[in-house]
Write a sequence for this structure.
């Protein structure tokens, strides 16, 4: 990407268009890779956050 920018081949409008129209792809990839480990990490973070608020 750096070479494309330096050589003038990089099209920022194309990149922005692709990013703005690809939210379904990003969300689907996140959902597809969300596993039990991720769920347990989120649960742990919630418990730690709530217990920290209770203690302080």
């Amino acid at each position: 990407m750096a070479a494309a920018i330096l050589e003038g081949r990089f099209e920022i409008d194309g990149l922005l268009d692709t990013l703005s129209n690809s939210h379904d792809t990003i969300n689907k990839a996140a959902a597809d890779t969300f596993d039990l480990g991720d769920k347990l990490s989120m649960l742990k973070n919630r418990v730690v956050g709530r217990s920290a608020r209770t203690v302080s």
In short: The radius of gyration is 20 Å. The chain has a mean pLDDT of 88.
